[in-house]
Amino acid sequence: MFFGVFSLFLEFIIRAYLITLGLDQILATLLAIPCGIMFAFLTNVKFNFKIPKSRRNQALVYFVIVSCFSGFVQWLLKNILSFESLNYEWDRLIISGSIFIMAYIFHRKYSFRDFKKVGVAIYANGVENLQDIYTKIGQYSDFIHVDIVDSSFTSNPEAVKAYRMETIKALWWNREIHTHIMSKTPSRWLSEVVPYSDIVYIHWECDEDIKAVLGTIHKAGKKAGLALTMKTTLDDVKEWVAIADEPYMAARRLSDRFGQAI
Questions:
Q1: I need a surface site. Which of 21, 35, 163, 203 has the fewest CB within 10 A?
Q2: 49 exposure class (CB count in 10 Å sphere: 0-12, 13-18, 19+)
């Protein structure tokens, strides 16, 4: 919102300056609007959406298209509603503000769809201090990733304390909770993790009926993800990926705490 308003003021300043130089109002407007659009794009890319450099040209194209479409809708509304003109600046502020949400939704969906999310991983055991983690990161992360590792997947794991999921959800109540179950029998943990998870990942390498487990997660109204180890080929899992909502490539090795290759 801040960058959008600031880009409008920049547009007003440039337009007014060009008019003082003797340019026609229409020409001054057509030159000023692209300056405001570029300012909004560059500031959003730098501060709000971390778009990779390789995708920025594509993002700019979408941004310009959405911005021009927004401008056309504003012009259309002004004419259809017989909007009583105050002056150029107030007209732009009032009408732009009224359709800001529409433009924002389109920008999120198309212009800045390649921005990266950052999550924090937490083990569902009794070792990590949840309150201490919360104190350090607060609500900064986009999502919380919870790892559950039991003895069927690796030797000598820390005891799983799935009941801590309730505390995790209470601390990060407004963030997505992604739960990664590293177990040959993931269904044994579903009743404890599903109520507090938005996405539940199970491993293709488990010993259970994958379709049935994914179905159980879906019936609970949650997204079901399929986790793969580095040694799993896509040909092995392509029929299951179509069923799952989210693919996830797990690390080749667990942390040194668990010590054994998956």
A1: 21
A2: middle
